[in-house]
Amino acid sequence: MTTTETPGMLRRILDYSSRADPYPLYAELRKTPVARQEDDTYVISTYREITDVLHNPHLSSDTRNLSHPTAGAEEQTTPAFINLDPPEHDRLRRMAMRHFGPPHTPGLVTGMEPALTDTVSGLLDDCAGKERIDIVDDFAYPFPVAVICHLLGVPREDEPRFRIWVNDLINSIDYDPKTDPKEKLDKGVQARKDLRQYLGGLLEQRHGGQGGDLLSRLANDDGPDGRMTDEEIISTANLLLIAGHETTVNLITNGMLTLLRHPQVLRRLRDEPDLVVPLVEELLRYEPPVHIIPWRAAYSDITVADTVIPKGSRIMLMLASGSRDPNRFHDPDRFDPDRRDNQHLGFGSGIHLCFGGPLARRETEIALTELVRRLDRPGLVADPPPYRRSPVLRGPIHLYVEQG
Ligand code: HEM
């Protein structure tokens, strides 16, 4: 039997008390690969079923196709392509992708290597000599914002304002069943407006220019799919910000936490810097930043593992559970940077597969290599550290480390 109502299990996973270690609960959940909830949400937790669903063309990423649309769905003017289906999704994704790297163009990511290294060095210079640092506030949080500002072409002097908006925006979408979302949502809506207005102004200046930044490229690009409208460019820029920020913060922070819990791997990384590539891949499987895709909508009735999911139902995909599925990965609860067969779900799968994967990987590789090289005998102050509330984007809110 694949479908049961599992009252309690999902609730326990979403409850904050499970945040530090949800993995034993995922193992329980996997006993029912497709689990119908009291509210008719279907929760899918096994690798094969998650992958099947992510490749199923009858599934929609557009909230407007849910029988009960989620909060905030109606407030978006032009949905970003993460919330669209083909053919619109594919057109916008292709238009943005052109600028992200070979084989299409020389690529923004390759060209960003010096900026990434400089930003990391600058942040670590500021930490030098401190007995105690917070890997989140002092390092992992500011890093991706600086990178996205650089990518989009946001001038340095505007970064502080930009960071405040990003903060409010990210907080407003943090899934937290406990707190009343009204105040957070209001702040988020205001931040979204301010950010759109700011990006609109910047875009106006970029029209007709020759800059190499992403806004300039999108504003002036006449690729095979034509040119994005200003509205589409702004939605895309917003999407990159939201999708590329806290995810990267969490991967760097989860990475440092995992290394401090596995000191032999940390020492190895110091001696063998090339280890960082498979190590980051294993982190995406073992301690991924995105634990859950909170919804997909069924366009029509679909069958998953013998269970019929009716049209309009909400489907929740437990990515982090799938990446620990023992039917797919050998010894899945072991952190093993030498693992060869590692097609994890850390970046999702199918047509919405993370678009920023190459950038996120490179940011995290540089961040972890430099943290390990420059911190002097780092040790954890608290284990487990305090976690952010969200069960969707999961990671520590602070990670204090003492040196020396
Ligand atoms: C999509 C994870 C970093 C841009 C996704 C999805 C996941 C994910 C799981 C699939 C969502 C779905 O299927 O609904 C991550 C993780 C990251 C990361 C774990 C960091 C470690 C980034 C960065 C950027 C980015 C740095 C951009 C600068 C996107 C975009 C999509 C996406 C645009 C939507 C793709 C589409 O709809 O076709 N990401 N992401 N991500 N990500 Fe990332």
Question: What distinguishing features does this structure have?
Answer:
10 strands; alpha+beta; oxidoreductase activity, acting on paired donors, with incorporation or reduction of molecular oxygen; binds protoporphyrin IX containing FE; heme binding; metal-binding; 404 residues; Cytochrome p450; three-stranded antiparallel sheet; five-stranded mixed sheet
Shape: globular
Rg calculated over all Cα atoms: 21 Å
What percent of the residues sit in helical stretches (DSSP H or I)? Answer: 40-55%
CATH superfamily descriptor: Cytochrome P450
Low-confidence stretches: none
According to CATH, the fold-level topology is: Cytochrome p450
User: What's the CATH architecture?
Assistant: Orthogonal Bundle
Helix-strand makeup class = alpha+beta
The number of helical segments is 17
Mean pLDDT: 90
Question: What is the chain-wise order of helices and strands?
Answer: HHEEHEHHHEHHHHHHHHHEEEEHHEE
The major pleated sheet works out as: 5 strands, mixed
For the largest sheet, list the strands in their spatial order.
1-2-8-5-3
Unique bound compounds: protoporphyrin IX containing FE
Per DSSP, what share of the residues sits in E-state strands of 2 or more residues?
5-15%
Give the domain tally. 1
